[in-house]
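I hope you will forgive my troubling you with a question about protein structure. Here, with my thanks, is the record as I have it:
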Amino acid sequence: MKTIKIIRLKRFWQVLAIIVIDAVFFTETNASSVAPIVLVLGFVLLMLTSYELLYGLLSLAKIYGLPVRHKHHLSLYLSAVMAVVIALQSIGELTARELIVLIPLVVLVYIYSVYLVAHNRT
């Protein structure tokens, strides 16, 4: 019965579609011989996959007694951090200094955005 409920979920089909697109795209693409726009599309696809993966992991955290109230915001900000780190690493500009600046900045922006969402609801 629970399997039928899972299959009916819209999110299940979205994740399944992303997995299939990932499998096709990343197995058929050679990064050294494609146009730059294809690399950008691969990067966007990687970030979309990381967002869905983080959202799913935050949803599973509820099973282990850690309910996350703002899963959408947290997974969005974590995937944005991953995007910046991967982009900086790919061009050879990632150092400890960037991480020291990036992580507190993202934490502050996340706290502020959650505060604004909570404050606007009242």
